[in-house]
Amino acid sequence: MARCYQLADIAAKEGESPVGSVIVKDGIIIGEGSEKSKQQKDITRHAEVVAILDALRNTDSLAGSVLYTNVEPCLLCSYVIRHYKIAEVVFARHSGELGGTHQPFDLLTSPDFKSWAQPPVITIYEEKATH
User: Fold this and answer.
1) Catalytic annotation, residues
2) Cα–Cα distance between 76 and 99 in angstroms, integer?
3) Do 39 and 66 contact (CB within 8 A), yes or no?
4) Rounded to whole angstroms, how far apart are CA atoms 2 and 20?
5) Residue 122 has pLDDT above 90, yes or no
6) pLDDT tens, 48-63?
7) Of 12, 11, 53, 14, which Cα lies nearest the Cα of 34?
8) Is this model's pTM higher than 0.90 or not?
9) Nearest to 38, CA basis, from 54, 17, 7
């Protein structure tokens, strides 16, 4: 999670929302990303999506991997996470009504989507006093 906070700080310094994400597989970071939506003028360049795309350059499958992010993935990112069968999502704080675990649009956690595997395990990271 420390790397997520570093990436979030970089994003904030670049005028972006302070979000950073990493993908870990077999204990190794295989992808990372910070928010790039404003810089790239592309709303899909959320930190989680950037990290997933980076990880896909390094491996053929994200099944069984863990995504760490300092903020709960939104609906857009939740779709991508489910599509790539990421096994666990660890985040530090909820993002409100557009978060992927928020009902009635709990895209990240709902088992009701028959075309996807089971939803990822959700772990809430206990933040340190410095963040």
Assistant:
1) 48
2) 9
3) no
4) 10
5) yes
6) 999 999 999 999 999 9
7) 11
8) yes
9) 17
- 131 pLDDT higher than 60: no
Average pLDDT over the chain reads 94
Number of Cβ atoms within 10 Å of the Cβ of 1: 18
CA torsion through residues 108, 12, 42, 56, sign:
negative
Residue the block writes with tokens 């904030």: 12
Q: What is the pLDDT of residues 89-102, one digit of tens each?
A: 999 999 999 999 99
**What type of residue sits at position 26?**
D
Query: What is the CB-side half-sphere exposure of residue 72 using CA atoms within 13 A?
Result: 20
Residue with tokens 């990493």: 22
Place of tokens 């979000």: 19
Could you report how far apart the first and last alpha carbons of the chain are, in Å?
11
Question: Between vectors from CA 73 to CA 4 and to CA 105, what angle results, nearest 5°?
Answer: 170
Where would I find the H helices in the chain? 2-13, 47-56, 75-83
